[in-house]
């Protein structure tokens, strides 16, 4: 088994959590850096080629560019450092989680306005930096909600979902039952959370960085079906071991027409909100699945 594949197993995730609990923060970052360098060495692994292809588009470079080798390392380093920070904070407890993440006023205002309307709120996010911190601390900061996760989670993803539940986050892998629960939640004026930038075979062709990718539109369908607001949130570094959750914008599904065309237009508008943030901080875009597999040489 390759190192990149090993990192996605439940055993390694639990081991990483145990190490993060006992290691000082600086030592945990050192371990994360070593792991990143080892993973980056395998330039042909599914992990590194996925990151390289995504970074090529985000940075406007050809896949073969030598500069992308450093870009892959930067993404892996940031991702593993962020995981080390999250695991350590979860091991220490609630106060460490709250202290690690600043919920920016830009996001608070968007959440308060949307929830105050009584129409429900779909909070969407991209895999940026330590987005996990924001998900885990929202409920403690007065914003409880239902999180829709990837369907059929395996390995490390199943362990991460269990961890999220232990910290009070209601996580539901996407299926019919979870979608019915999400609809009920939104009709009660509450919040549902989900991601928008992971490639989805059941998704639709959408534009990101000027290139078409198969991406989810379920969040747009939910908004159209229930009338709930769509709020886009991001997360980025805010100094060593600290992160900032920010609001990127609010979209009203009533402004995008009806039917399938309206769903597509709304889903596309969400991605346009993320492009400037992802371009400004490509090293913090922790997307480990290829959005444009056609770029990867056979």
Task: Report on the architecture of this protein.
It is a single chain. The chain has helices at 3-6, 10-22, 25-41, 46-59, 67-92, 94-100, 105-116, 131-138, 155-166, 176-187, 218-226, 259-280; strands at residues 101-103, 121-125, 145-149, 170-173, 191-195, 204-208, 211-215, 229-237, 243-251. With 298 residues, the protein is an alpha/beta fold. The protein folds into two domains: 3-95 and 286-295, no CATH class; 101-281, no CATH class.
Q: Please give the share of residues in helix.
A: 40-55%
Beginning-to-end CA distance, first to last residue? 21 Å
What is the percentage of strand-forming residues?
A: 15-25%
Q: How large is the radius of gyration? A: 18 Å
Strand order within the widest beta sheet: 1-9-8-2-5-3-4
Shape: globular
Mean pLDDT: 88
- The total domain count is 2
Q: What is the SS-derived class?
A: alpha/beta
- Following the backbone from N to C, one meets helices and strands in this order, namely HHHHHHEHEHEHEHEEEHEEH
Low-pLDDT residue intervals, each spanning 5 or more residues: 1-10
What does the main sheet amount to? 7 strands, mixed
């Amino acid at each position: 088994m390759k190192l990149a594949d090993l990192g996605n197993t439940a055993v390694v995730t639990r081991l990483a959590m145990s190490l993060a609990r006992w290691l000082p923060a600086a030592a945990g970052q050192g371990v994360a850096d070593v792991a990143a360098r080892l993973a980056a060495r395998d330039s042909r692994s599914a992990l590194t080629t996925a990151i390289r292809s995504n970074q090529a588009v985000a940075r406007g470079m050809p896949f073969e560019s030598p500069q992308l080798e450093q870009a892959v390392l930067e993404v892996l380093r940031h991702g593993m450092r962020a995981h080390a920070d999250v695991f350590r904070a979860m091991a220490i407890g609630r106060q460490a989680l709250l202290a690690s993440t600043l919920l920016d006023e830009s996001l608070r205002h968007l959440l308060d306005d949307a929830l105050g309307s009584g129409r429900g709120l779909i909070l969407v996010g991209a895999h940026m930096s330590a987005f996990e911190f924001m998900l885990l601390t929202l409920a403690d900061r007065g914003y409880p909600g239902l999180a829709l996760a990837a369907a059929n989670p395996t390995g490390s993803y199943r362990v991460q979902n269990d961890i999220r539940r232990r910290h009070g986050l209601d996580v539901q892998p996407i299926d019919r039952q979870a979608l019915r629960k999400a609809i009920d939640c939104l009709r009660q004026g509450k919040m549902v959370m989900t991601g928008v930038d992971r490639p989805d075979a059941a998704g639709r062709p959408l534009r990101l960085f000027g290139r078409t990718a198969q991406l989810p539109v379920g969040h747009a369908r939910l908004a159209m079906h229930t009338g709930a607001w769509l709020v886009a949130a991001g997360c980025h570094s805010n100094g060593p071991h600290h992160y900032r959750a920010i609001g990127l914008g609010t979209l009203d599904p009533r402004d995008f027409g009806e039917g399938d065309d309206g769903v597509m237009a709304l889903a596309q508008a969400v991605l346009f909100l993320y492009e400037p943030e992802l371009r400004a901080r490509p090293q913090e875009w922790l997307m480990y699945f290829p959005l444009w597999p056609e770029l990867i040489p056979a």
